[in-house]
Amino acid sequence: MKITSCKTNHMVNPLGYGMKHATVSWIAEDTVSKKQDGAQVVVARDAGMKEVLYDSGKSTGLSNLAVDLPIELAPYTRYYWTVKVWGDAGDEATSEVNWFETGKRGDGWQAKWITPVWEDKNRHPYMRKAFSINGKVKSARAYVTGMGLYELEINGARIGEERLTPYCNTYDQWVQYQAYDVTEAIKEGGNVVGAMLGNGWAKGPFGTFGEANHPYCHVFALLCELRITMEDGSVQVIGTDTDWKCAPSPIIEDSIYDGEVYDAEKEIPGWSTVGCDDAGWDKVTEYDAKELGKVVDRLSVPVLVKETIKPAELIRTPAGELVLDMGQNMVGWLRIKAREKKGTRIKLSHGEVLQEDNFYRDNLRTAKAEYHYICDGTERTVEPHFTFYGFRYAKLEGFTEPVSLDDFVGCVVYSDLETTGHIETSDPLVNRLFLNAMWGQKGNFLDVPTDCPQRDERMGWTGDTEVFAGTASFNMDTYAFYTKFMQDLYEEQKLVDGMVASTIPTFTTNRSPESGFITGGACAWSDCATVVPWEVYLHFGDKTILERQYASMKGWVDWIRRKDEATGNRKLWLEGFQFGDWLALDGPVPGGVMGGTDNGLLASAYYRLSTNILSKTAQVLGFTEDAKFYGELSEQIKKAIQDEFFSKNGRSTVLTQTAHVVALQFDLVEPEVKDRVVRDLRALLRKNNMHLKTGFIGTPYLCRSLSDHGDSESAYQLFFQEDYPSWLYEVLMGATTIWERWNSILPDGKISGTEMNSLNHYAYGSIVEWMYRNMCGINPLEEAPGFKKFLLKPEVYGKLYHANARVKSAMGVIESGWKREEDGTLTIKAVVPFDSEATAYLPACDLNSVKGLEGLKAEQAGDKVKVHLAAGSYVFNYLPTKKYDLEYNLDSPIRELLTVPETKEILMEMAPKLNASAEGNMGMELPYSITDVLKAADPFMLMRMFGKVDFEALNERLKAVPVKVRRM
After folding, report:
1. What residue ranges define each of the domains in the chain, with the CATH number in brackets?
2. Is CB count within 10 Å lower at the N or C end of the chain?
3. What's phi and psi for 657, nearest 5 deg?
4. Which CB contacts under 8 angstroms, 24+ apart, belong to 674-682?
5. Which residues lie closer than 8 Å to 591 by C-beta, 6 or more apart?
6. Could you say which of 29, 101, 225, 457 is catalytic?
7. Residues 470-529: pLDDT tens digits?
8. Are 354 and 360 in contact (CB under 8 A)?
9. Which one has a higher pLDDT value, 755 or 290?
10. What angle do CA 223, 228, 234 make, to 5 degrees?
11. Distance (Å, rounded) from C-alpha 134 to C-alpha 230?
């Protein structure tokens, strides 16, 4: 046995983070034991674990998912902890010593906010202070924040690896500082601490379409406090004050949207070292910071250069441009080798796509997305400081010396989240789709979950966040990341009586309360307040996030409730603006943004969903009265929805795909009529030739609503479509991330528009949750969150030879996969982590034919075999009771039969009139299949479409054509 993944508040050895109390978690693995027989957590003040502050003793009541430490946390204190675990087979293990260190925890600042004295508030500053240390340093910490963004240096060395600090916040409510261990940077004798400041989210142009300028702060400002503990126990504090000095930095211009202009000729050599003469530097003055909130311990996960990638190709375009192709739409910047003559200005422009093989960036709207570097004549490696780009291509200008691929490195930047999930199948297009969603998550998880990372937006749209939270939490450990984001959501929610904004944080030049600057209160978007905390709890099993967010969750539901009560108390949500099924393809205006599903149904469905989640949350937290009240309210909303939008036999009055999806996924109809809803949804899909028309609300749940209600066949048919609109269409068009629109790029390679057309927009990547849950079968359970118990229910399909998922859950590694063997048998593999258990359903299985069930509790459950699995690895093999090999027949889509040369030839021979029908000569849409026409029993249609046909013989001829299936 060994113990890994030891975390405090879901972070490894956190320094200076905000925590009301400390919670520790771990994973035990590599053990023959099935269950935990006991655990012991010990907390001490020293790394040798001698000064013990808490010892739980061996306890059977400690869960690895979360143990609250019953200790009073003091500021500026490092705590050490270990955990020992006993297994039921007699083995045991003790973790390495872990630690967490508190920051200021509300202790007052001796430092003062400072800002340059310059009248030009857009001049970018260096700031510095020289100081001396007499004696040996035991430890030293720097507590720092700045407006808009800052980089800290001590004695010529950059401190820490974090980028874009102090991150993106609701700055007028709270400002984060970062804590750094600077013990090694401080030396006895003379020292210098300094910072370089740039524009960012708080200061500078930022907000939708670049309309806001200095949304939270109008000056460059710094707050820095060094706390130096000497060997003799004395403490010396060096803080920002009016003794600091400033000078113009080499950054001439910068913004998150437009990029950065850096003039190396204006650098001050050694500016943060003792050797730099600052006699001519300017003074600073105190900044009152009235426009900012209280400075508090951080919550943001570090933003880092998480990966580096090499460029794929250097292109000379037909227009004569020199363009670098990274081979991947990424977020971050380029690290470049600059070796030009003094005064040479090199320029990099960033874009997502080529058009007619030339550089293109019109879909970035007003964002320039440029990096300018004015050379000083020295050869060096350079990169931007206070911006980032979403790009695959970079146009290179100003280079007079030859360049090569070796001169460039792509720095991939995102929040420091552990990647936990992976899916691999036999189909390379499906594998690429998974990677596209993962890359979309990386690019848009940059301190806040943004909608897109490249244009003049890059904001925390709550709708995108809500629909992707499940996928995100399979892919990565999102707990700490979402904890910070939900704090920002609540800070703004408190300003508007429970309403939740559409973007978090809200950015606008005028943030006065009377301006009505926070807009929102739309279903799905604002339901982020309830959905995200619940998804995080479901995946990680720690109720702390529910405790933190309960007031927010309740505030949001009560806001909707008050709106309803003010308009008749119908237990529906029928009033106010809604985004609705955003970008769905069934809207009243072709190509418009508004979908065709009744907004009253969608809003009421989300009212039901959020109220139900709130009731369950109250139950988890022990708020029994709230649990009862909101549970009853949820059922009342469900009844009102049924009365308003459904007949008694389950027929929806709203005839869209999304209306049926939410009816199933949000449990809006009674169990006895759900089959009717599934049939009607399937009919709508077949009417559209098994293509989706859904938008932001319907798409995330479309395949799940089918699979979870017994129709995985339709879900797979939908998933494997390759023409517009479909997920694989994007892959076939060369996408390396998820697009904002189903047709962001048209079949001829032209971009479909520029007004709102991001090529890195992860919302539709939510299909990956279906891939984890249904294709591969891994499902968390509400009754045992954090995968303490879970469901394994994979669904096999003939267009795949195998599919496998691996998830490093909060309990440990879970694996689930299936393979169709050459001999026709089916192999199911599963891994259940220590101290967890699963219920597995083997698809198309006869209990008496399965190899691998020895010693296991198993039973026949319809056409599946139900097996209880304790911790361990399992392999099952059997001949399935269902034929999974695909075949062409009369049930096949007519459009598909006409695109496969062999089947088309058969149709043209046996039903020559069909080709004319396909070319639109009948002025009607083709039915989904020949069987559909036969079922219609319309002799006139049969004769007009097909002529005289022997359908039985046609079916046999079609079945003889082998179906080609892609494989790696």
Report:
1. 2-101 (2.60.40.10), 114-297 (2.60.120.260), 303-415 (2.60.120.260), 776-878 (2.60.420.10), 894-959 (no CATH)
2. C
3. -60, -45
4. 674/650, 674/709, 675/709, 675/710, 676/649, 676/650, 676/651, 677/650, 677/652, 677/709, 678/705, 678/706, 678/709, 678/710, 678/711, 680/651, 680/652, 681/657, 681/705, 681/706, 682/706, 682/711, 682/714
5. none
6. 457
7. 999 999 999 999 999 999 999 999 999 999 999 999 988 777 666 666 788 999 999 999
8. yes
9. 290
10. 130
11. 9
- Residue-wise pLDDT for 850-860, tens only, equals 999 999 999 99
Cβ neighbours around 382 below 10 Å, total: 16
The pLDDT score that the predictor gives to residue 777 is 99
Q: What is the DSSP letter of 271?
A: T
Rounded Cα gap, residues 393 and 390, in angstroms: 9
Which of these is catalytic: 151, 162, 740, 837? 740
DSSP 772: I
Q: Two tokens at 250?
A: 């080499």
Tens of pLDDT, residue by residue over 7-34, are 999 999 999 999 999 999 999 999 999 9
Full-prediction pTM beyond 0.90?
A: yes
Angle at 271 between CA 269 and CA 276, to 5 degrees: 85
DSSP assignment of 534-570 equals HHHHHHH--THHHHHHHHHHHHHHHHHHHHHHTTT--
Would you call 740 a catalytic residue per the annotation?
yes
Q: Tell which residue, 439, 166, 170, 461, has the closest CA to residue 292.
A: 170
For 872-890, the three-class secondary structure string (H helix, E strand, C coil) is EEEEEEECCCCCCCCCCCC
CB 391 within 8 A of CB 350: yes
Could you please report the per-residue DSSP string of 388-407?
-EEEEEEEEES--S---GGG
What the block records as the tokens of 502 is: 């559409």
In sequence order, the β-bridge partners of residue 472 are none
Active site residue 29: no
